[in-house]
Amino acid sequence: MPAANEGVHVDVETLLASVPAPVPVRAADVRAETDPASVLVVLDDDPTGTQSVAGLPVLTRWDAPDLDWAFDTGANAVYVLTNTRSLDPGTAAERNREVVAAALAAADRAGKRLTFVSRSDSTLRGHFPLETDVLAAAIGEHGGRPALTLLVPAFPDAGRITVDAVHYWVVDGEATPVGETPFAQDATFGFHASDLREWVEEKTGGRVPAAEVAALTAGVIRSGPEAVADFLRALPESSYVAVDVVDETDMRVLALALHRLEREGVQALLRVGPPYVRAHIGQDIAEPVTRDRIDFANERGGLVVVGSHVPLTTAQLDALREARPGTATIELEVRRLIDDRREAHLASQAAAVAKALEDGTVIVHTTRELVTGRDGDESLAIARQVSSGVVDLVARVLALAPPRFVIAKGGITSSDTASEALRIRRATVIGPMLPGLVSLWQPEDGPARGIPFIVFAGNVGSTDSLAQVVDELVG
């Protein structure tokens, strides 16, 4: 679809009317073509990328023992939480380089071959092209050479699809080009283009013109894996490829093509949304985890921590409070977290949360006012201050009164809660709490071992999704 159509809100049935029927590819078909010695290393710029998978190891650190543990599980994908969406560009670049070097060293010890995946937000927010540039260079320094960089941001479970290279957000049957949504107004990672080809040109500052970005359209994908492999083989080396995805089978077709190309020695670098990893390793769509499958640490109330400021999160918080009017709610005031009142505020609020947990579930949220700086860097610094305040509070609560479970709402919030507040180095993704959307982890070490941790992205689900998850956990 040409860029002239950006800004037009389209009925999704009309949008998809000319798209061919999907190819019937099963997860088992993909599993049959996977190489057991090949492992995806997913550098996840916040922990919400695990929401579409089950039974995989996840790391918040990448020291040798941690990576050795992950590879020893025999999993064909390993998540490494870099949390780079909350970092400045220089720190984000260095962290990507560190992970590549550590992962390749661990792969040598384990006899594995790696494909690197840069997992980012399905609404196109994050350090691009910085992260794929750094990954490609770091892989090259260790003797590899990605021939292609594939962009697969689609997340059909959450209403994000790509058609004719244009990325859409689908709500209630209406498809809106993502550049016209609130996500594109992000203070740090904002953008204008919805056509992924133009988005690449925009984000690279013209270094990669839109005309040089290949569009792997649904017409090719729905001609089957060999048609996709032929299309990719014909591209110039180092090409960027914008990939159409409408449903799970489209990603499975792409996965089959990439497995075949890998056997020919063609290496790809992937920048993807949450569900592609599941498709690539041939994992079936997991059934939601129910309460009877969860081992709880104790009989206190659970802790629901809400940091995200996107409108959907605010609506979900309101719906939770309406559904559970008796639930204690403790507010962290953003402006107090960024001035000299911070310590006193955190001490008093942590004590209040610990006391309330003795009687039931507690909601902790930051004030809904979005405080931004003069530019993207200052806004990111404020976001880090607020996030570190949330982390500090959760850590204090963990010491005072370990909760029955912890839900972290928002990407930066959940990452910092996992790695800093709960001090999780290693965890296993048990599966989704909502289909493909909300991830349940089992911490394997640290003070939170035995406390179920639920990772809930800020911009997914319906208005009542947070209430549904709490209902499942509390009963």
Tell me the layout of helices and strands:
Blueprint: E1 10-11, H1 12-16, H2 27-31, E2 38-44, E3 56-59, H3 64-72, E4 77-81, H4 89-110, E5 113-119, H5 130-141, E6 148-152, E7 160-163, E8 166-171, E9 174-177, H6 196-203, E10 214-216, H7 218-221, H8 225-233, E11 239-243, H9 248-263, E12 268-272, H10 276-280, E13 303-306, H11 311-323, E14 328-332, H12 334-337, H13 342-357, E15 362-366, H14 376-400, E16 406-409, H15 411-421, E17 426-434, E18 438-443, E19 453-456, H16 465-474
Helix pairs in contact: 3-4, 4-5, 8-9, 11-16, 13-14, 14-15
Rounded to the nearest angstrom, the radius of gyration is 21 Å
User: How many distinct helices?
Assistant: 16
**Range of strand content:** 15-25%
Number of strands: 19
**Which parts are unreliable, with pLDDT below 50 for 5 consecutive residues or more?**
1-6
What is the mean pLDDT? Answer: 92
What is the C-level CATH assignment of the largest domain?
Answer: Alpha Beta
**What's the end-to-end separation, in Å?**
47 Å
Helical residues, percent = 25-40%
Please sum up the structure shown.
By secondary structure, the protein is α/β, with parallel strands linked by helices. The chain has helices at 12-16, 27-31, 64-72, 89-110, 130-141, 196-203, 218-221, 225-233, 248-263, 276-280, 311-323, 334-337, 342-357, 376-400, 411-421, 465-474, and strands at 10-11, 38-44, 56-59, 77-81, 113-119, 148-152, 160-163, 166-171, 174-177, 214-216, 239-243, 268-272, 303-306, 328-332, 362-366, 406-409, 426-434, 438-443, 453-456. The strands form two sheets. A 15-stranded mixed beta sheet has the order 10-11-6-12-5-2-4-3-17-18-19-16-13-15-14, with helices on both faces. A four-stranded antiparallel beta sheet has the order 1-9-8-7.
